[in-house]
Design goal:
The chain is α+β, with helices and mostly antiparallel strands. It has helices spanning 14-20, 62-69, 75-78, 102-107, 118-121, 125-176; strands at residues 38-43, 47-52, 57-61, 89-93, 98-101, 115-117. A hairpin with a 3-residue loop joins strand 1 (38-43) and strand 2. The protein is rod-shaped and about 100 Å long. The protein starts with 13 loop residues before the first helix and ends with a helix.
Length: 177
């Protein structure tokens, strides 16, 4: 399953990047309450809303989500291999909160457990393309906001300098009188 890089939303926000940086290459995304994979329902510059296989529904600030995710920043939880046999998993067991490979399924240990086939919940290319478009649009918005912020800061600085010069000029004129 492909992961959505939430970190992209933080591009340009260096204070957030420093506080919540995680290794993007080794982090996929889980529920912040358990180690289950998540389905992202919605996401914008500030908030993420998701649900997991264990029925946790959550809407929270992205920075809070990343902070809580530090406890599950374990690539082994998220890679495409089961934890026991290191074989590509096929299913997810809700009772054990774990991915199951063919060997796990053959063992019979999960025969009466509630399971779901991973292929059923994988996002389709259209959904992934929509999410990537939102991410790219947000990158552009963030760049525009950063440029606008810099421009406004320069304008305010120029106004401040002009006002300081006016005050100094007024003081000089009063001294001359």
């Amino acid at each position: 399953m492909e992961a959505i890089e939430i970190e992209n939303l933080l591009q340009g926000e260096t204070s957030l990047k420093k506080s919540y940086s995680l290794d993007k290459k080794k982090m996929l995304y889980n529920c912040s309450k358990c180690k289950s994979p998540i389905e992202i329902i919605s996401m914008d510059e500030e908030f993420i809303e998701f649900k997991c296989n264990n029925k946790h529904n959550n809407k929270m600030k992205i920075k809070d989500y990343l902070e809580e995710m530090k406890q599950y920043n374990n690539y082994a939880l998220n890679n495409d291999r089961c934890e026991n046999h290191h074989i590509k998993y096929l299913s997810y067991c809700f009772e054990c909160n774990s991915h199951l490979c063919e060997e796990c399924l053959k063992s019979g240990d999960h025969v009466y457990h509630y399971k779901i086939d991973i292929i059923e919940i994988m996002p389709d290319k259209e959904s992934l393309n929509k999410i990537n478009k939102i991410i790219n649009d947000n990158k552009i918005k963030l760049k525009k906001l950063a440029a606008s912020k810099l421009n406004t800061k320069k304008q305010l600085n120029n106004i401040l300098i002009k006002n300081i010069n006016k005050i100094n000029q007024t003081k000089e004129n009063k001294k001359k009188l």
